[in-house]
């Protein structure tokens, strides 16, 4: 029986960095639990903001939360009001959960090519499906948008659930270009998410292949 592995975790250290970066000698479970709960809180709060990833860096005195998004203007707000409000919400969350106090730093980074980032495309698809657009139309439009982006060599999109409100759940997918999932030097971005619809949730999975990476970190075209 075959087993599947997550394309991100499979390439950790080889191509991908850790999304939480810190080191402790004792009480490892406390900061780990903080990171997991904080990431869940921010993913719910920032849904619809086209956030690609949330990274956390810790030093003995500072906690740096890095939010990478395709819509930095919406997140920062006029005069930085949105960023300040988000920072206060994170501080309230820490206080409510009685986590250790630290100087909080919030960094918002812009994603230049959103079509090359799987998590952003998952959110975009979820928004279209929640507007009750046809799933086939959304599939074709999304894969065309991804493949039109410069540097993308292959893409695969899978949808599962009660598609178009059918009685029985099923699985539909589209693929274009290459997708070498078992090649560790292949730069494959993967993400999954859900679209919330009146008749149930639809599962979304996206794989984006951007070429192979050598030791000099230059993709092979």
Automatic annotation (TrEMBL):
NCBIfam families attached to this UniProt entry: rpsC_bact
Keywords of this entry: Ribonucleoprotein, Ribosomal protein, RNA-binding, rRNA-binding
GO molecular function: mRNA binding; rRNA binding; structural constituent of ribosome
InterPro entries found in the cross-reference section: KH_dom-like_a/b, KH_dom_type_2, KH_sf_prok-type, Ribosomal_S3_C_sf, Ribosomal_uS3, Ribosomal_uS3_bac-typ, Ribosomal_uS3_C, Ribosomal_uS3_CS
GO process annotations (BP): translation
Stated role: Binds the lower part of the 30S subunit head. Binds mRNA in the 70S ribosome, positioning it for translation.
Limits of the KH type-2 domain: 38-112
PANTHER family: 30S/40S RIBOSOMAL PROTEIN S3 (PTHR11760), SMALL RIBOSOMAL SUBUNIT PROTEIN US3C (PTHR11760:SF19)
Keyword Membrane recorded: no
Family in the record: Belongs to the universal ribosomal protein uS3 family.
Stated name of the protein: Small ribosomal subunit protein uS3
PROSITE patterns: KH_TYPE_2, RIBOSOMAL_S3
Gene source species: Candidatus Giovannonibacteria bacterium RIFCSPHIGHO2_02_FULL_45_40
SUPFAM superfamilies xrefs: Prokaryotic type KH domain (KH-domain type II), Ribosomal protein S3 C-terminal domain
GO cellular component: cytosolic small ribosomal subunit
Subunit composition and interactions: Part of the 30S ribosomal subunit. Forms a tight complex with proteins S10 and S14.
């Amino acid at each position: 029986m075959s087993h599947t592995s997550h394309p991100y975790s499979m390439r950790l250290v080889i191509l991908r960095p850790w999304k939480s970066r810190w080191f402790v000698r004792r009480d490892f479970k406390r900061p780990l639990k903080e990171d997991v709960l904080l990431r869940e809180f921010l993913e719910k709060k920032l849904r619809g903001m086209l956030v690609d990833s949330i990274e956390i860096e810790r030093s003995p005195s500072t906690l740096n939360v890095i939010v990478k998004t395709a819509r930095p203007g919406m997140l920062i707000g006029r005069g930085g009001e949105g960023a300040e409000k988000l920072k206060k919400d994170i501080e309230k969350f820490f206080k409510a959960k009685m986590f250790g106090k630290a100087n909080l730093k919030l960094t918002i980074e812009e994603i230049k090519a959103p079509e090359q980032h799987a998590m952003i495309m998952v959110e975009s698809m979820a928004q279209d499906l929640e507007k009750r657009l046809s799933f086939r139309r959304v599939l074709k439009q999304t894969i065309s948008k991804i493949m039109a982006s410069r540097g993308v060599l292959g893409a695969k999109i899978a949808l599962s659930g009660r598609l178009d409100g059918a009685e029985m759940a099923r699985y539909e997918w589209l693929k274009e270009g290459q997708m070498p999932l078992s090649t560790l030097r292949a730069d494959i971005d993967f993400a999954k998410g859900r679209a919330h619809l009146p008749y149930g949730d639809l599962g979304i999975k996206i794989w984006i292949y951007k070429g192979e990476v050598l030791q000099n970190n230059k993709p092979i075209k």
